[in-house]
Amino acid sequence: MNKIPQEKIKRASEGLRAIAHELRLSVLCHLIEGDKCVHELMEATGASQSNLSQHLTKMRMMGIVDNEKRGQQVFYHIADPAWGDLVHVLQHIYCPEMCAEQPL
Amino acid sequence: MNKIPQEKIKRASEGLRAIAHELRLSVLCHLIEGDKCVHELMEATGASQSNLSQHLTKMRMMGIVDNEKRGQQVFYHIADPAWGDLVHVLQHIYCPEMCAEQPL
DNA sequence: TTATAATATTGTAAATATCTAATATATAAT
DNA sequence: ATTATATATTAGATATTTACAATATTATAA
Question: Which runs of consecutive H residues, i.e. helices, occur in chain A?
């Protein structure tokens, strides 16, 4: 009864791959707390400018994040809050102590 | 306030990678409906025996699925129901029409 | 206009992941 | 014992991903 079309599974797996990387997932976790410009994300993650930019571009192209230019800075934010929910599920799996008794 | 330790992020990204593949995600979707033996998963996914077995092994080693021998068959099941929840979040993103008005 | 700061893009070598084919193992049936 | 069935493992060629360095772009400041 849960018949998911193959094409959707393919796109979903591509979306997953877009966050299945230590640095990209780290960025996502920081963006959950609010918009951040590239510079802030560099400091928060310790990644190099070039490397971070490439990963941000990848996530933007996959529809995970979106960006917006303000002055000379570019601010990124999570495109669909469901990606934040997905991170919360991950926390339930890998950081159960942080989730305490909260249900999904 | 949502400070997630880097080590957890690393492990979570590894877990994500373990399902961020069309075939592996497809298997996961089938396992949501209940335990399946390798043979059934072969038919359901159309993958070759060898290829499927390798992907199942990878998911088992990453703690996504677990298996159990019954007679001459090996049945796989989702190890932690939270992985099923994660697939549901993906459905909200990529198959919204299937989720109708259900919240997470 | 020149310089500086913030971000993006490109080229590329190294690492990782993937698939197929072949082979191995273990269990059940004859 | 032999054969058949179900699943796992290994080897190797190809494809994809990654990180770093260098360069480009764009907007602001001097």
Answer: 6-17, 22-32, 38-45, 49-61, 81-94, 96-99
Q: What is the per-residue pLDDT across A66-94, written as a single tens digit (0 to 9) for each?
A: 999 998 999 999 999 999 999 999 999 99
Is the CB of residue A29 less than 8 Å from the CB of residue A44?
A: no
Residue B20, min C-alpha distance to chain A (Å): 5
Subunit contact A89:B95, Cβ cutoff 8 A: no
Contacts of residue A63, defined as CB under 8 A and 6 or more positions apart, other chains included, come to A15, A79, A80
The structure tokens listed for A97 are 């102590």
Q: What is the pLDDT of residue B55?
A: 98
Residues of chain B with Cβ-Cβ distance to A33 below 8 Å are 1-2
Cβ contact A17–B13 (<8 Å): no
Q: Distance (Å) from CA B10 to C1' C15?
A: 17
Which bases of chain C are under 7 A from a protein CB atom? 5-11, 17-23, 26-28
Average pLDDT over residues B27-39: 97
Domains of chain A: 7-79 (1.10.10.10)
Strands (E), chain B: 36-37, 65-70, 73-78
Distance CA A11, CA B38 (A): 24
Tell me which protein residue sits closest to nucleotide C16, measuring alpha carbon to C1': B17
